Amino acid sequence: MGTPRHIPSPAEAATLARKWAAHFARPTAIGMTLAFVAGYVDVVGFIALFGLFTAHVTGNFVMIGVQLVASTHVGVLAKLLALPVFVIFVAAVKLIVQAFANRDRRPLRLLLILQTLLLLGFMVIGMAAQPIISADAPLAILSGMFGVAALAIQNAIGRLVLSDLAPTTIMTGNTTQIVIDMVELASGNCGDGNAAKARLRKMLPALVAFAVGAVFGGFAYHGAGFWCVLLPVALLVALATANE
């Protein structure tokens, strides 16, 4: 007979859970997790909702131009609504951060919980809208606005609460700075090599995580539909648990 399998006691399980959650409190892990979530959800929204960007919200202006030139207004309404929804939720986050600052408290956990709830709304309403045959279907638009709102909160978190991390939702600036720092380091024409290396250590993981999230999001949506949003929801729950 084999050795009996050890079943962890409640105390041991709690200790393991705390150790696991502690990984999500590290700055690099926070940045990479949020970047993964942004790339993942942006691709899911783009595929499911006919080219709607949820993270890179200004990219919707490009899609509006494409659709107008193609003489079709299908999906234009959702893309027009994305910017005011984004603005409203960024403003709401700013007010929350101000209120917490007055009480010397950090609002990160609350904001992550709000983002998680909005992502759940994005998923549930998207499932209710199935099959989505038109970008102008009311439930499709509503689902998209929940996704935009969720990523608006993440954009604002990056600016107001986690400003020491690299941006996690839009990678153009990160990519530009990475290339500049790499060229300067390679050429030896770098005034402060330590600063450049520090920026690379901060920005490269976020860029890689965003790209991996985008690839995973595409395959996951094709395989599981809106159910795939449970993965970024679980990651946000882990972040909210590990951070105050």
What does this structure look like?
The chain has 244 residues and is mostly helical. It has nine helices and no strands.
Please supply descriptive tags for the structure shown above.
244 residues, mainly alpha
Number of helices: 9
Q: Roughly how many Å apart are the termini?
A: 47 Å
Q: Rg from C-alpha positions?
A: 20 Å
SSE order in H/E notation?
A: HHHHHHHHH
| Rounded mean pLDDT score | 89
Which helices and strands occur, and which strands form pairs?
Layout (H helix, E strand, L loop, with lengths): L9 H13 L4 H22 L10 H11 L6 H27 L5 H21 L9 H23 L11 H16 L5 H32 L5 H13 L2
Helix pairs in contact: 2-6, 2-8, 2-9, 3-4, 4-6, 5-6, 5-9, 7-8
Q: Could you provide a short overview of the structure?
A:
With 244 residues, the protein is an all-alpha fold. 73% of the residues lie in helices and 0% in strands.
